[in-house]
Amino acid sequence: MNTNFDRDFEEIKSGVNKTQPPRLLLHVCCAPCATACLLRLVDSFDVTLYYANDNITDGAEWEKRLGEVRKLVQIVNDGKFEAQPLRPLNLIVQDLDAQRYYAQAKGLEKEKEGGTRCTKCFELRLGDAKTYAERHGFDMFATTLTVSPYKNSKLLNEIGLSLQTDSLKWLPSDFKKHDGYNESIRLSAKYGLYRQHYCGCPFGGV
Ligand code: SF4
Q: Where do the domains of the chain lie, and which CATH numbers do they carry?
């Protein structure tokens, strides 16, 4: 049976106590993807973005995408976003360590987009988010990656679910539903956010 991760997300969201919203660590791959996800999150969760992307091995590109994430945080916290946040949006940055990514991708450099290299890449980043969330007492963790039509939401959710613990739950999602990807394009244009044309690693992939 296929799990409907979008329905699971909506069920969890509808049960949230908004006077005491769950602390959610949202792994963020880039600002454009974050826009459509935040639209569905900030009115119900206490969201902290976690920028941990060792796959973006080019330091200048990594910085550029981080700058756009900072810009988006400012937009949300200034009340200029389409959804008003229950709590101010926070941002945590994990320093770039491209060697960790290269070690993870070793031997898989020639894999196609969506193959084993990408699985390893997801495991690295979601693992980093889980570690941070656990150490800092978050209730849930999730990722913006499910908004992309190029990313396998089922796989991302399976990895997330395999990492959850009794005290730290994975928030399932399929943010590409409800026209999420097109929403991210619209919102990026509206807020003047840079949209990159490649996924991040030097081995290809959009
Ligand atoms: S194509 Fe994207 S998801 Fe796949 S390994 Fe490269 S950066 Fe990671």
A: 5-190 (3.40.50)
Among 196, 178, 193, 141, smallest CA distance to 39 is for 178
Q: What is the mean pLDDT of residues 125-133?
A: 98
What residues are in contact with ligand 1 under a 6 Å CB criterion? 55, 113, 117-118, 121, 199-201, 203, 205
Closest residue by CA, ligand 1 atom 2: 199
CA–CA separation, 176 and 151 (whole Å): 9
Residue to probe by mutation, ligand 1, list 54, 58, 106, 118, most atoms within 8 Å of CB: 118
Radius of gyration of the chain (CA): 16
This model's pTM is above 0.85: yes
pLDDT digits (tens, 9 = 90+) for 57-96: 999 999 999 999 999 999 999 999 999 999 999 999 999 9
